[in-house]
Amino acid sequence: MASQWYTLTPLDVLMFRDAKPFTPGERAWANGRFPPTGHAIAGAILAYLGERVTLRLRGPFLCFDEQLYLPRPLHLYQGEFLRPVNWLSETDSYRHFLWDYSRPIPLISGQTDSKASSKEKGFAYLPQDEILHLLKGESINLNHGVKEPWEIEIRPHNTLKEGTRQVKENDGYFVENCVRVQPGWSLAISVEIQDSQTGEFHPCNIPQSVTLRLGGEGHQVLVTPCAELQTQWQRLQEISQSNLQSNQRCLAYLVTPGVFVRKTNGISLCRAWPWEWNLAQPSNKNSRTGALVSVATDKPIPINGRTRAKNNEDLSLPAPQVFAAPPGSVYYLEYPTSLMQDNAKVNDRDNPVHRWRQLGYSEMLWLSNPFQEV
Asked: Which InterPro entries match (predicted)?
């Protein structure tokens, strides 16, 4: 059954208090990220529905004039695709490059000129028709890329001591970043709701012109159904799934923050690629060989999924709880391999990490290999 897609158009600025700052010099700042996390979107929808249900989200993505925009794939550098050194030709001087074999294989850029480099500066998002070309392994037009379509505004907050004109010593003053989205731009999401009886998911119908409270300070977004987004997403999925079914080298393109967390000795560890993906060339010959060749990624994104401890409603948890791989990360694979988060059950038991996928995290599209086989 097809899911229901919506645009979320901000009616004012948006504030997201996702994480307390870690830098001592920034202790008076309240930080957040945009686009908002799946937790923030789900919280807004559940508050509107007024009941405890299980949602399944896709996104959030960006939208302009009913066209999806996805984050820039990070394997694009100066207008060229980065390439793992072991995927280079035998005659290439970098083919015998040495690296730490306990890590993914390094990436090398191709020959580019300065003009190609200057055109790519500020490029942050691509429209879905260019993403279609990427999925097919075709060339793309970087001139269609856009910068981040929002601006950051700074808002100070003061709290005075009762009966005085003095600012409180604790949490009495802080500065907050607000997001103002440019005219014409909105968020794009798909929402499904689970039937409590059958366990099946079906479209979550939200009436036209409903407003949702999203983020802090009561700021709202206007919800509008958009069938065109469903059509675009379906086209992307058809080609992506075809690439996934192949048994050839391919690239996995992360389009939402990727949460890859594993508990070791009671401590949750996060990294930029799935824990079940083993290296194609491991350092230890006795280690299991996998499909992962290399990773093109960037700084991790803090995700704050909870605000209270389970055993004490008055105790605030430190934020964030996890760090996610940024959207746009690209994974080079010798062959397609599934993501454990996609499975609702593992060994006939509920899969706890599947909840991340239900909230829209770790969404991947599968690209065909743009490089000639060596």
From this structure: CRISPR-assoc_protein_Cmr3
Report CA-CA distances (Å) from 262 to 98, 259, 273, 352: 29, 10, 11, 11
Q: Is 230 exposed, middle or buried (0-12, 13-18, 19+ CB in 10 A)?
A: middle
Write out pLDDT tens, residues 332-351: 999 999 899 999 888 889 99
Residue 270 DSSP SS3: strand
pLDDT confidence tier of residue 357, bands split at 50, 70 and 90: very high
* Domain boundaries of the chain, sorted by first residue: 1-72+146-241, 81-122+246-374
Per residue in 48-76, pLDDT (tens digit) is 999 999 999 999 999 999 999 999 999 99
| CB-based contacts of 116, cutoff 8 Å, min separation 6 | 78, 79, 80
Using alpha carbons, select from 240, 32, 220, 217 the residue that is nearest to residue 128.
Answer: 240
Helix 128-135 / helix 227-245 crossing angle, nearest 10 deg:
10
Helix residue spans in 192-314 (DSSP H): 227-245
- Residue 50: what are its φ and ψ, rounded to 5°? 70, 20
CATH fold label, 1-72+146-241: Alpha-Beta Plaits (3.30.70)
Distance spanning both ends of the chain, measured CA to CA: 41
Both tokens assigned to 268:
């949750």
